[in-house]
Amino acid sequence: MAALYRASVDVTQSGPPADELAADEVVSVWRAIAASHAAVCSALERELGERHGLGVSDFEVLERLAESVDHQFRAQELADAVHLSQSALSRLISRLEKSGLVERCMCDLDRRGIYVTLTEAGRQRHAEAAPTHRDVLAGVLSGPPLAPAHGGRGPDA
What we know:
Arc Repressor Mutant, subunit A
């Protein structure tokens, strides 16, 4: 999908994309991006939920923590990284804590700071779910671009 966008618009150009594309084309590209995002999120929610008991945001938090060198993130930075408000992240962390996948720790240097740390159970759940996540991404994103007019795949969907 990103290739479709880049093929239509040079994002490094200083002028607005409308200089090169008619307004209808810009809207069409936007709709294709939105349709692709919706298709990926729907497939991920279904597969991660059914196979691993995780939502997309749950997995994304586990993924960011697993990728971190010390398997922890400051809560505020984690919220920014996964595109959630601090209150939404707090609710998500509470659910993951109840499942034993993460734990909250106070920052030693700044008592106002809270760290979210991946537990061993969280590392294991992430390791089990990561192949499903990658398979869904590859399956949905490697197909033909979504047609924005009707939301199906390709022109004959």
